[in-house]
């Protein structure tokens, strides 16, 4: 009856998306929301819905789904419960490259940002994967987490240095640096969705192989899989998913760590279920967090990345405390 | 045992064993650090030869140089050395306690806590309270975060690995909180806070910064050195340390407190300069072996040297831009870290 | 003298052992045997105050160890945990020096006595020539000897060891156990250890303690205690016990699924 864990959340997702469109600094009746979709009349409310609220909700859903899947895939590839695009520095790498491109080279535009983000994600992700797979048994959770934290610290330092030496628009850039889906336009989603969709497709097609890989490289090879190829495809999907997400929303933290753990608790260890469920749960989380972020400091908005970063802490605590004493 | 020197005083009952190698290495590093300080003081838009710098220091220099050296450059140089040394020692303690050569105050959340303290100080009290109080704010921040970290990791004692994992999660959350305060505050304070979060020792002075930092370090350094023996036993693991009669949890708490105080004081003055706490102790172990009696002083000297050189490069190579020194230390530190991971791949 | 009285320890609501009494004979080698997860390591660790039991007491020379200062215990009892890890680059000498920790203070960090005892510990374990080597560069057997040297430097009448022979090949296992035997016979130290190999346990132990599900199933001289019924009960293993051809101690020959007939035929030829 695992299908329940897919259907119920889909309904919930639809609900939160509608709420996200309807509620905010100005609340809009659900009826008007519906009207604006079927009978658009260019009124003020309809304009807000069409140009601000709907893109925002859809972007949040897409980014949440992508980051959750990327986290689940990374956790298999590194055989490490604490892996996710944010903990391993993939997001920070993508963010730094966007800043470098935007501030130093003066390039802008969603297409350019997306490509640069993919390059950044590939570079930092590549380093982390390389590090994650060296050694006899791959890396321990602590080691890979430290590696990721250092990568993040490295890119964060460079990014801040870049901002300070080019000094302008701190507030906007910072809001982007913690990750936010506010003030986005539909065109931005249009620019990144092919990459996101490609990443999701690869991950879903790979799920059967991930089940085998989860038992270890040697075991996977013994069962006739080529672990190298599975990892390469997995890494490609992570780069597309994380790079695409960062390009539109900035480096939003910890969605990739929170969701796979919840989902594994609900549906077990089969990645054919984990991945689609992660996508839906990730979307719910980010849309809901974004909705919540509008109410914390009304009328100002807290970037949604701050919300997810704080929500992630209990999960770190849980994972760290669950682990057997190892000293 | 010709490699060692035993010092024993019959009267006081004092006895200690020192490796001769440590004395040599420390002497060489001290000379190097002094040399770098003098050369670095001479570098800048107005070049002053090392000889002339020494003359100024001895009080017989050119009066024109006097102002540049004593007022403008020397405070920054001295601060670089002090901040570098305290971050390095804080890192050495933490690596001993956590028993992982890859740990450092900046990844375990201590530095982030200190910088959140400072950012809050700038935004909430900005202007109303003298800047001299900032170390209190950042040490409080570091302590608060470490306290939270301790509580969250406590489960029949604090396990070092649990401490690191939770520390990383916590530090990411705290960093985004700091960003949030910067975003929601007035624009003119943003640059100052951001500089602080990156780590820079630009524009420090004798009467504000050096005087603020020195008393802390004058107490904390000797106190730490006295703990070397305890660090040595902690490094063998909880079971072995308890078996040898060490009070593991209590001593761990004191050691972490020392590390927090050192890192907090350094961050208050220099901002969140990263990776020195990782690199210096590691190099020190390579040079002076694994005993903390040697690692602590050698780390301090290496930390001072690393920050001196980073700051020198940061302020001279990119003229007219004064790049924050923290960017430089991160740029050297991250590749160094990758190398460490590669070296430790089978452990 | 080391004794456990009514010892009980649980993780959460699951008892590892409950109201367990045990007395370790002085000056003898005592070995704990039992299947995985029977609680033998936990028992050893709680007798060395590494774990705190919920009920009961551990008495060391007539005093409850929970009332003793941990340094005081460290001068009477040393424990070598399973698979200890030395920090990178630590030399053998630096490691063995740590054994003097319970005798040192801020002031007195390296007395002549410390120096003599560390030298003796290195000699006793045959590590003198390797004292400047780093611990991680040693072979498994040498590394274990270095750790034993450290516990020797602690100069305790009682030494506990948690599986001192794990991860060692046969030669190194014998090397380590012979060293412990020598320490026991020459210096009259009480040795308590957990061993997995029943045959080696029988050969070296003066006193064997068989543990099953947190209960002491039997204890005494190996020759008197170890029989087919006990092994079947404790390890759930059918076997035949024959006298060791060299030492006369019990030797456990397990039954397996291999065809006994074929084996006998091979033996006949």
UniProtKB/TrEMBL annotation, chain A:
The membrane-topology field of this record reads: Multi-pass membrane protein
Q: Does the keyword Transmembrane helix apply?
A: yes
Q: What is a single molecular function from GO for this protein? A: transmembrane transporter activity
- Give GO BP annotations, semicolon-separated: siderophore-iron import into cell
| InterPro entries associated with the record | ABC_BtuC-like, ABC_transptr_permease_BtuC
* Keywords from the named record: Cell membrane, Membrane, Transmembrane, Transmembrane helix, Transport
Query: What's in the GO CC field?
Result: plasma membrane
Localization in the cell: Cell membrane
What protein is this chain from? Iron ABC transporter permease
Species of origin: Paenibacillus zeisoli
Automatic annotation (TrEMBL), chain B:
What residue ranges are annotated as transmembrane? Answer: 21-48, 77-98, 110-127, 133-152, 164-190, 210-232, 253-280, 292-313, 325-342
Q: Where in the cell is it found?
A: Cell membrane
Keywords attached to this entry: Cell membrane, Membrane, Transmembrane, Transmembrane helix, Transport
GO BP, sorted A to Z: siderophore-iron import into cell
The protein's matches in SUPFAM superfamilies, at most eight in alphabetical order, are given as: ABC transporter involved in vitamin B12 uptake, BtuC (SSF81345)
Q: Which CDD domains match?
A: TM_ABC_iron-siderophores_like (cd06550)
Q: How does it sit in the membrane?
A: Multi-pass membrane protein
Query: Domain of life of the organism in this record?
Result: Bacteria
InterPro entries registered for this protein in UniProt: ABC_BtuC-like, ABC_transptr_permease_BtuC
- Gene Ontology CC terms, in alphabetical order: plasma membrane
Q: Which residues form a coiled coil?
A: none
Kindly name one Pfam family recorded for this protein: FecCD
Q: Name one GO molecular function term.
A: transmembrane transporter activity
Record-stated family: Belongs to the binding-protein-dependent transport system permease family. FecCD subfamily.
Query: What PANTHER family does the record tag this protein with?
Result: FERRIC ENTEROBACTIN TRANSPORT SYSTEM PERMEASE PROTEIN, FERRIC ENTEROBACTIN TRANSPORT SYSTEM PERMEASE PROTEIN FEPG
The identity of this protein, by name, is Iron ABC transporter permease
UniProtKB/TrEMBL annotation, chain C:
A GO molecular function term, named singly, is: ATP binding
Bilayer topology term: Peripheral membrane protein
Task: Tell me the keywords, alphabetical order.
Answer: ATP-binding, Cell membrane, Ion transport, Iron, Iron transport, Membrane, Nucleotide-binding, Transport
Q: Which GO terms describe its cellular component?
A: plasma membrane
The record's PROSITE patterns line, in alphabetical order, gives: ABC_TRANSPORTER_1, ABC_TRANSPORTER_2
ABC transporter domain span: 2-238
Quote the InterPro entries the UniProt record gives.
AAA+_ATPase, ABC_transporter-like_ATP-bd, ABC_transporter-like_CS, P-loop_NTPase, Siderophore_ABC-ATPase
Q: Name one Pfam family in it.
A: ABC_tran
Q: Does the keyword Ion transport apply?
A: yes
Q: Which domain of life is it from?
A: Bacteria
- GO terms (BP aspect): iron ion transport
Q: What is this protein called?
A: ABC transporter ATP-binding protein
List the Gene3D superfamilies.
P-loop containing nucleotide triphosphate hydrolases
Q: Where in the cell is it found?
A: Cell membrane
């Amino acid at each position: 009856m695992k299908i329940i864990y897919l259907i119920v959340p889909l309904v919930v997702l639809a609900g939160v998306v509608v709420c996200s469109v309807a509620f905010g600094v100005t609340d809009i009746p659900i009826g008007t929301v519906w009207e604006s979709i079927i009978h658009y009349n260019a009124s003020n409310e309809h304009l807000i819905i069409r140009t601000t609220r709907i893109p925002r909700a859809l972007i949040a859903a897409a980014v949440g789904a992508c980051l959750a899947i990327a986290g689940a895939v990374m956790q298999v590839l590194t055989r490490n419960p604490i892996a996710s695009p944010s903990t391993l520095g993939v997001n920070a790498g993508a963010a730094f490259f966007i800043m470098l491109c935007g501030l130093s080279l003066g390039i802008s535009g969603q297409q350019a940002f997306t490509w640069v983000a993919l390059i950044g994600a590939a570079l930092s992700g590549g380093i982390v994967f390389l590090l994650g797979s060296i050694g006899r048994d791959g890396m321990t959770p602590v080691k890979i987490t430290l590696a990721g934290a250092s990568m993040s610290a490295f890119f964060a330092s460079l990014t801040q240095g870049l901002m300070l030496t080019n000094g302008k628009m701190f507030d906007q850039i910072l809001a982007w640096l913690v990750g936010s889906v506010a003030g986005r336009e539909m065109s931005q989603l249009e620019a990144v969705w092919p990459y996101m969709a490609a990443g999701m497709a690869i991950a879903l097609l790979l799920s059967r192989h991930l089940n085998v890989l989860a038992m270890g490289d040697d075991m996977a090879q013994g069962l006739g899989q080529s672990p190298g190829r599975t990892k390469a495809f997995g890494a490609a999907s992570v780069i597309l998913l994380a790079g695409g997400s960062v390009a539109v929303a900035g480096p939003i933290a910890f969605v990739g760590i929170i969701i796979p753990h919840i989902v594994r608790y609900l549906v077990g260890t089969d990645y054919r279920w984990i991945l689609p469920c992660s996508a839906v749960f990730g979307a719910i989380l980010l849309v809901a967090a974004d909705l919540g972020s509008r109410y914390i400091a009304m009328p100002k908005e807290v970037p949604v990345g701050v919300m997810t970063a704080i929500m992630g802490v209990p999960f770190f605590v849980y994972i760290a405390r669950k682990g057997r004493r190892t000293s | 045992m010709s490699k060692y020197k035993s010092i024993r005083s019959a009267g006081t009952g004092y006895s200690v064993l020192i490796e001769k190698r440590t004395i040599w290495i420390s002497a060489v590093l001290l000379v190097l650090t002094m040399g770098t300080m003098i050369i670095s003081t001479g570098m800048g838009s107005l070049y002053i030869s090392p000889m002339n710098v020494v003359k100024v220091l001895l009080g017989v220099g050119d009066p024109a140089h006097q102002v540049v050296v004593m007022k403008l450059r020397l405070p920054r140089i001295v601060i670089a050395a002090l901040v570098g040394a305290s971050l390095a020692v804080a890192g050495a303690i933490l690596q001993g306690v956590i028993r992982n050569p890859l740990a450092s105050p900046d990844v375990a959340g201590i530095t982030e806590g200190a910088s959140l303290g400072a950012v809050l100080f700038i935004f909430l009290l900005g202007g109303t309270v003298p800047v001299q109080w900032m170390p209190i704010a950042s040490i409080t921040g570091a302590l608060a975060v470490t306290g939270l970290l301790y509580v969250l990791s406590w489960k029949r004692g604090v396990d070092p690995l649990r401490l690191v994992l939770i520390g990383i999660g916590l530090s990411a959350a705290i960093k985004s909180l700091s960003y949030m305060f910067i975003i929601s505050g007035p624009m003119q304070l943003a640059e100052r806070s951001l500089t602080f979060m990156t780590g820079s020792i630009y524009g420090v002075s004798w009467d504000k910064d050096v005087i603020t930092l020195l008393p802390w370090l004058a107490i904390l350094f000797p106190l730490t050195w006295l703990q070397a023996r305890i660090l040595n036993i902690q490094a063998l693991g909880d079971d072995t340390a308890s078996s040898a009669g060490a009070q593991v949890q209590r001593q761990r708490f004191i050691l972490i407190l020392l590390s927090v105080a050192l890192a907090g004081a350094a961050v208050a003055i220099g901002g969140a300069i990263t990776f020195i706490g990782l690199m210096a102790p590691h190099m020190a172990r390579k040079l002076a072996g694994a005993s903390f009696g040697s690692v602590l002083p050698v780390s301090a000297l290496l930390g001072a040297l690393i920050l001196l050189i980073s700051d020198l490069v940061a302020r001279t190579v990119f003229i007219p831009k004064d790049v924050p020194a923290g960017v430089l230390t991160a740029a050297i530190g991250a590749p160094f870290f990758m190398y460490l991971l590669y070296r430790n791949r089978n452990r | 003298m080391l004794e456990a009285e009514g010892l009980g320890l649980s993780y959460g609501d699951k008892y590892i052992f409950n109201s367990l009494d045990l007395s370790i004979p002085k000056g003898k080698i005592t070995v704990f045997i039992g299947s995985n997860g029977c609680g033998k390591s936990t028992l050893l660790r709680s007798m060395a105050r590494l774990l705190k039991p919920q009920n009961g007491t551990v008495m060391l020379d007539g005093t409850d160890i929970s009332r003793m200062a941990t340094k005081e215990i460290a001068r009477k009892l040393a424990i070598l945990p399973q698979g200890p890890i030395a920090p990178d680059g630590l030399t053998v000498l630096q490691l063995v020096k740590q054994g003097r920790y319970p005798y040192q203070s801020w002031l007195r960090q390296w007395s002549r006595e410390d120096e003599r005892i560390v030298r003796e510990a290195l000699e006793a374990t045959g590590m003198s020539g390797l004292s400047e080597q780093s611990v991680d560069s040693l072979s498994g057997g040498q590394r274990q000897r270095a750790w034993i040297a450290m516990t020797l430097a602690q100069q305790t009448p009682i030494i506990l060891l948690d599986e001192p022979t794990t991860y060692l090949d046969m030669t190194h296992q014998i090397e380590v156990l012979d060293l412990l035997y020598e320490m026991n016979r020459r210096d009259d130290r009480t040795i308590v250890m957990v061993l997995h190999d029943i045959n080696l346990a029988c050969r070296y132990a003066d006193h064997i303690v068989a543990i099953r599900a947190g209960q002491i199933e039997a204890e005494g001289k190996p020759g008197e205690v170890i029989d087919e019924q006990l092994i079947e009960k404790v390890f759930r293993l059918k076997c035949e016990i024959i006298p060791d051809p060299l030492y006369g101690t019990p030797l456990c020959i397990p039954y397996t699924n291999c065809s006994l007939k074929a084996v006998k035929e091979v033996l006949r030829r």
